[in-house]
Amino acid sequence: MDSLQHYGTQLLAGAGLTLKLTLGGYLLAALLALPLALLLYRRPRLLTPLARLYVSFFRGTPLLGQLFLLYYGAGQFRPELQALGLWGLLRDPFNCALLTFSLNSAAYQAAILLGGLQGVKAGEVEAARAYGFSPVQLYRLILLPNAYRIAFPALGNELILLLKGGAVASIVTLLDLMGQTRRLFSQTFDFTVYCYAALGYLVITSSLIWLWHRLERRLMRHLQPAAPPPTQRLALSH
User: Fold this and answer.
1) Residue-wise over 144-158: b if at least 16 C-beta within 10 A, else e?
2) What is the torsion angle, in degrees rounded to the nearest 10, for the CA atoms of residue 114, residue 116, residue 122 and residue 128?
3) CA 156 to CA 109: how far, in whole Å?
4) The whole model's pTM is what?
């Protein structure tokens, strides 16, 4: 307990940075995943190969390698990045990690959302077209709401995977939860700090899962069977 009080401030600071990276990267990825999924679903001739290449690259290579490629590789193009005004952004390890997490998660979210789009019942689409829905109305009122409903559990899993995979950010000197843990261990050689870090990840993960399930139940409450009225419940009990 004394060691927990000693490490608590640093570990809490690291947990805050971990949440910042995870949630920020996830939300930015969600913005990019939607147009990617629509490209893969609509399959325009010119842009579909690029979208497939993007998704294949980020799903087929390790997150750590992507982070190294951006963080260490950006320095090889410093003059060009300075000319574009991007060097100040990419020389910051936090920005590199956030961008890497966003690009990586966008590929997974796009694949998940594509599955949701393909899972929408054809009859619903045909009925909407029969009612004269425009393409924009079809996507806004039928396809996207149903696709997100289908994909919602898997999107929650992606958030948890990004949280745990985001521990690689400590490799590029960021003091997230794992980075603080490594720093404290190098100073004290007290192995219990890793136990506290594992407990911290467990608490964060469990909290996010609980919140996601609550949000899922709230969004899907119209699909759950309604409770019978009191008189009917009384009749059923007899």
Assistant:
1) bebbbbbbbeebbeb
2) -100
3) 10
4) 0.87
Cα(215)–Cα(159) distance, rounded to whole angstroms? 14
Q: Report how far apart, in Å, the C-alpha atoms of 85 and of each of 66, 68, 81, 91, 219 are.
A: 22, 21, 6, 11, 42
Residue where the block lists tokens 């700090």: 193
Question: Over the stretch 111-126, which tens digit does the pLDDT of each residue have?
Answer: 999 999 999 988 888 8
- The answer to whether 139 and 96 are in contact (CB under 8 A) is no
Contacts of 95 (CB under 8 A, 6+ apart): 89
Count Cβ atoms within 10 A of the Cβ of residue 117 and give its class: 0-12 exposed, 13-18 middle, 19 or more buried: buried
